[in-house]
Write a structure and sequence with these properties.
Belongs to the H-rev107 family. GO terms for molecular function: N-acyltransferase activity; phospholipase A1 activity; phospholipase A2 activity. About 50% of the residues lie in helices and about 20% in strands. The chain is of the alpha+beta class and about 190 residues long. The chain has 2 domains: about 5-125, Alpha-Beta Complex (endopeptidase fold (from Nostoc punctiforme)), CATH 3.90.1720; about 140-180. Strands 5-1-2-3-4-6 form a 6-stranded antiparallel sheet.
Length: about 190
């Protein structure tokens, strides 16, 4: 989105989604081309942010120029939960966001990330669609994997059961042949001269 188009559309209290490739960073617009956002100690390193899923770290609430936060990434205004929750008043969102600047908060990719931070400011509800979608995708993947393993197991089990039946039948036929050949013995042999 071009800066002039963005300036005409953005309002204080709007949420800004910044596409960082493998994840989205979130900020709340507070006016004057500035945003408030939650930044991990590694200053936004994708790898370190993703590794933070393994533990809980701290993050700083910062107020920065939008262009500094965005860099060369794409960004959009995305008030993603407006259809679910009534947004708080813009002046309340901005006031609360600005009061948080300089604080250090607990950070965890799954439970307390930058999206949780901004949705809590706008709606009073800390939610992360990014996390929900990822968890859902993982759940579906695990479900598909379990179903595939069940089908494979059933196939292998039924295959071995069929093979066992074939082997038993072959063994029964061989025993019958052996009995029949023993029963005949030499008395059934005919010699011709």
């Amino acid at each position: 989105m071009a800066q002039d188009q963005f300036d005409r559309k953005v309002k204080p209290g709007d949420l800004i989604e910044i596409d960082r490739g493998i994840y989205q960073h979130w900020a709340v617009y507070v006016g004057g081309h500035e945003v408030v956002h939650l930044v991990t100690a590694d200053n936004g390193s994708e790898v370190l942010e993703l590794l933070s899923i393994l533990n809980t770290s701290t993050a700083e609430v910062r107020r920065d120029k939008l262009q500094e936060v965005v860099g060369c990434n794409k960004f959009i205004i995305k008030n993603l939960l407006d259809d679910q929750y009534k947004p708080r008043e813009p002046d309340v969102i901005v006031r609360d966001a600005c009061r948080m600047v300089g604080r250090y908060l607990r950070y965890n990719l799954v439970t307390h990330n930058c999206e949780h931070f901004v949705t809590n400011l706008r709606y009073g509800k800390p939610e992360s669609r990014q996390v929900k979608n990822t968890v859902t995708a993982i759940g579906v993947g695990v479900g598909v994997g379990v179903a595939a393993l069940a089908v494979l197991g059933a196939f292998l089990f039924s295959g071995s059961s069929e093979k066992e039946k074939e082997e038993e039948e072959e063994e029964r036929v061989n025993r019958t042949r052996q009995r029949n050949s023993r029963g005949r013995g030499n008395r059934h042999r005919h010699y011709y001269y």
